[in-house]
Backbone:
């Protein structure tokens, strides 16, 4: 019967392989193995430090394939030191994006700097993060790039405030993709509904059609505004039957 390999044995093997300066294929394998070892239970603090040192060496590897393998391997790790996570997050996009999406080691301060750089692919990666903070949501929207905003709206755990959601609707009120992503987040808060009533006639018409699932014919904008004002967040359906008839249009 084969015995399971212990984390310590794997760590010893990884350290030996690193010293022997294996070829690219073997270094990629090493990068993949060290990720699970870094998070293994039962490692002493000294052993985990050795694992982190191996990760640090692999992050410096001149071969992109090796750095990509280590990024994928440790992106989710709670034991990855912040300075190593930041180094990976500043590498080329292929290497940085998994870390920007997943790493719990990255602090908001660092992520703010990445957002402020304006790199769309990196902003989209940050917009995917679990429980993204209110501040980072606001900063992504403030950059005015549709792609990251759409990704943010599609992240159900993103902490988008009413103010930020209203800003999105005001800026992208005539964009069908953005509007649909807003609707897909569920019932809108009253504050947001009230702000919607103040949008331009074109924006209101477009939004009413989608929110109440109406056909394309001309919508009575003022009646639509009045109906929006009556919508409450605890409603389970949006019923425009008091002012819209499916056969004749506005009542």
Residues:
């Amino acid at each position: 019967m084969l015995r399971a390999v212990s984390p310590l044995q794997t760590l010893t093997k990884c350290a030996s392989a690193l010293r022997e300066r294996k070829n690219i294929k073997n270094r990629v394998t090493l990068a993949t193995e060290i990720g699970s070892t870094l998070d293994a239970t039962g490692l002493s603090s000294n052993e985990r430090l050795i694992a982190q040192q191996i990760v640090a060496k692999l992050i410096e590897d001149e071969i992109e394939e090796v750095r990509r393998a280590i990024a994928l391997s440790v992106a989710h790790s709670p034991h990855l030191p912040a300075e190593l996570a930041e180094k990976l997050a500043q590498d080329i996009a292929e290497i940085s994006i998994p870390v920007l999406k997943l790493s719990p080691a990255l602090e908001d301060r660092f992520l703010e700097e990445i957002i402020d750089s304006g790199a769309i692919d990196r902003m989209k990666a940050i917009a995917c993060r679990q429980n993204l903070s209110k501040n980072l949501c606001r900063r992504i929207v403030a950059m005015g790039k549709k792609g990251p905003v759409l990704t943010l709206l599609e992240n159900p755990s993103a902490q988008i405030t009413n103010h930020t959601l209203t800003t999105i609707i005001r800026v992208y009120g005539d964009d069908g993709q953005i509007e649909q992503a807003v609707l897909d987040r569920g019932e809108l808060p009253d504050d947001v509904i009230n702000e919607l009533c103040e949008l331009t006639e074109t924006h209101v018409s477009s939004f009413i059609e989608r929110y109440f699932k109406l056909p394309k014919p001309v919508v009575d904008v003022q009646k639509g505004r009045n109906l929006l004002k009556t919508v409450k967040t605890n409603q389970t359906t949006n019923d425009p039957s008091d002012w819209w008839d499916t056969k004749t249009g506005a009542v």
Observations:
- Residues 144 and 185 are 20 Å apart (CA to CA).
- The first strand starts at residue 244 and ends at 245.
- The radius of gyration is 25 Å.
- DSSP finds 15 helices and two strands in the chain.
